[in-house]
Specification:
2 copies of one chain form a homodimer. The first copy, chain A, has a 5-stranded parallel β-sheet, sandwiched between helices. In chain A, 55% of the residues lie in helices and 12% in strands. The longest helix of chain A is centred in the middle third of the chain and has 19 residues, at 77-95. By secondary structure, the first copy, chain A, is of the alpha/beta class. In chain A, helix 1 (16-27) packs across helix 10 (182-195) and helix 2 (35-44) crosses helix 5 (77-95). At the A-B interface, strand 5 and helix 10 of A face strand 5 and helix 10 of B.
Amino acid sequence: MTYKVITISREFGSAGRTIGRQLADELGIKCYDREIIGEVAERSGLAESYIESKGEDSSQGRFSSMLGRGYYQGMTNEDQIWQIQSGIIKELADKESCVIVGRCADYILKDRDDVLKVFVHADIEKRAKRIVEVYGETAEKPLKRLKDKDKQRRAYYQIYTEIEWGDARNYEVCLDSGELGIDTCVQILKTIVKGTE
Amino acid sequence: MTYKVITISREFGSAGRTIGRQLADELGIKCYDREIIGEVAERSGLAESYIESKGEDSSQGRFSSMLGRGYYQGMTNEDQIWQIQSGIIKELADKESCVIVGRCADYILKDRDDVLKVFVHADIEKRAKRIVEVYGETAEKPLKRLKDKDKQRRAYYQIYTEIEWGDARNYEVCLDSGELGIDTCVQILKTIVKGTE
């Protein structure tokens, strides 16, 4: 098996993005994360901040829209964003070897057999420490913020995919970055990708 | 972090036992699996086959016993087996560096911080192929047998532990042995254990 694309699904504050970037650097490939939002903005005409607010960290989505407006009224902005984003992720996977962080890329690329699906998680206390240190989170209590984020991402997966977010069976590899450390996680993933080339 | 003990929880047919044995061989430590049943038999006076029938692949357990006999009637054989087995696993972890396959060792040793908790899984089609090849399973249709086993192990975890069997967040590492291959899984785990010594 040769893995062309590595998708990293991650709990907020678990360093999934950092692991993705380091892995991409070491493999000499690109890492896509927020860049995808820019491209969605370009294609949809919607503002990046608006797109972000309707993404995986949104507590809204197709479900709440459906409740609010009746089922047959057509696509919401959330649905449109989902569709454009899915298209972009599929194009990226066709075009080049890359790492894609978040954005349900694991689900969107589920029919390809050259995708290494990774889930990165960590104990909530360690994630709280990290978001204070790295992002300087101060606006809210970090534990509450993490619990809200976890809930939002889980809900987003439930609404847009058939995947139970964080069920090990949906990924080739799941790693506890808080226990193993960022560098070990990167090395494990690199070993898998290089070893299966 | 130095990992003294590696627990391997696994789906039936996912080669978790083989990975455990190979890892133990490469690390020069012991691997405990069925040996624990022998020791439970020794201490309880119950037959090994009986103990096995009441273990993690049993569809019975504390819950069904409770239903059948009223709550306050004392320990069932299942409870006694659980208690003795837990004691043995704790003793093993105290005594020596080792690999322990199955038997809810991840939960039993949850208060130790020197335990690397691993979950091994694989696609059901690949597991079916494996149990036919390795164990020569012919008595039942392999897919049905696997579904029953999955259900039993999940139920056993629900009854005896607080752990959602297969939720990535309960383990430091989860590996899809069907995709990654047995040797790669062993190498990943060895890298983690050696790298953190």
